Structure formats: structure tokens, C-alpha cells
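User: Hey, quick favor. My workstation is busy. Could you predict this chain's structure for me?
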Amino acid sequence: MPKCGSCGNEGIFDSKSVNPVRPLARSGLQALFSNGGTIANVEYCNAPWELVNAAWNQPEIHFDRCGQCGSSSILWP
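Assistant: No problem, here it is.
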């Protein structure tokens, strides 16, 4: 399960590679992780389907920002 090195968040992570639809909005690609460390849900807007599928299969590459504090200090097991 990923963990934010700054705030300790273990649930919601964003992708810096997908721009938000509106200024000051969250990333266009965000994942919610279950307690077991697997992806429970992916929300996407402004992201091509190929990228969404790749992120689902290789989350450690694509989800590189904390969804709570915005830190890029993400620790993967």
C-alpha cells in the first residue's frame, strides 16, 4: 500500500501527469486504495483511457502525488 511520507495518507493518490479540468482542482486522475493496498476505485477526467488502464495496472508509476497534502514524497512497498 502506498503511503505519503509527509502526512501519512494511505488512501488517496493523484497523478501529476494529468492536468485538472479546472484551475485549482485536483488531478484528472485519482485513485482510492483499499486497506489491503489494492486500487479500490479510479476517478478520471481529462485522462485518455489508455493512461487510466496503465495506471490501474502499474499504480506505483502513475500515482505520484498525495491526494490529501499534495506531497510528491510517496513511499511504495
